[in-house]
Amino acid sequence: MLRAITVDFAGGLKINAHMGDHVIRTDQPRTSGGEDAAPSPYGLFLSSLATCAGYYVLAFCRARELSTEGVRVIQRIEPTPQGAIGSISIEVEVPADFPKKYLPGLEKAVDSCAVKKTILNPPEFRVQALHAS
């Protein structure tokens, strides 16, 4: 499990997260003063949920040797009147010839998503500002 992510500032409102050998780039939309050169951190957060669901759908299909041709995961966000997230729905769209008997299994697979589980059972957060040593 990844234990640390280091963030640096790349100019303007661009912020990079360093995760092992990977760099995740973020920016803010133009409407918020950014250049829209990368997803916003919030967009990246929501994408992590959708792609995690996609991973579990892919794993389910592979384990049963089912084609993923034409399979899509669609995540929809319903905001509250205050602009917060009111609800999130995740749909797994399959082609007409996809075996119907596997639809409940696909739903169960998405329920296994680690990101979804973390949102439903949030960790404790601790924040502190420190002088570098």
SSE diagram, text form:
Layout: E1 6-9, E2 15-19, E3 22-26, H1 41-63, E4 72-79, E5 85-93, H2 103-111, H3 114-120
Antiparallel strand pairs: 1-2, 2-3, 4-5
Percent range for β-strand residues: 15-25%
Unreliable stretches (pLDDT < 50, length at least 5) are none
CATH architecture tag of the largest domain: 2-Layer Sandwich
Kindly report the name of the CATH homologous superfamily of the largest domain: K homology (KH) domain
The gross shape turns out to be elongated
Proportion of helical residues: 25-40%
Number of strands: 5
CATH class of the largest domain: Alpha Beta
Please, what is the average pLDDT? 95
Helix/strand-derived class? alpha+beta
Largest sheet geometry: 3 strands, antiparallel
Any idea how many domains? 2
Compute the separation of the termini in Å.
26 Å
From the alpha-carbon coordinates, what is the Rg to the nearest angstrom? Answer: 18 Å
The number of helices is 3
Short description:
With 133 residues, this protein is of the alpha+beta class.
Question: Mind explaining what this structure looks like?
Answer:
With 133 residues, the protein is α+β, with helices and mostly antiparallel strands. The chain has two domains: 1-38; 41-120, GMP Synthetase, Chain A, domain 3 (2-Layer Sandwich). 29% of the residues lie in helices and 23% in strands. It contains three helices and five strands; from the N terminus they run βββαββαα. It has helices at residues 41-63, 103-111, 114-120, and strands spanning 6-9, 15-19, 22-26, 72-79, 85-93. A three-stranded antiparallel beta sheet has the order 1-2-3, with no helix packed on it. It has a two-stranded antiparallel sheet with strand order 4-5. It is elongated. The two termini are 26 Å apart. 12% of the residues are buried. The model has no long low-confidence stretch (mean pLDDT 95).
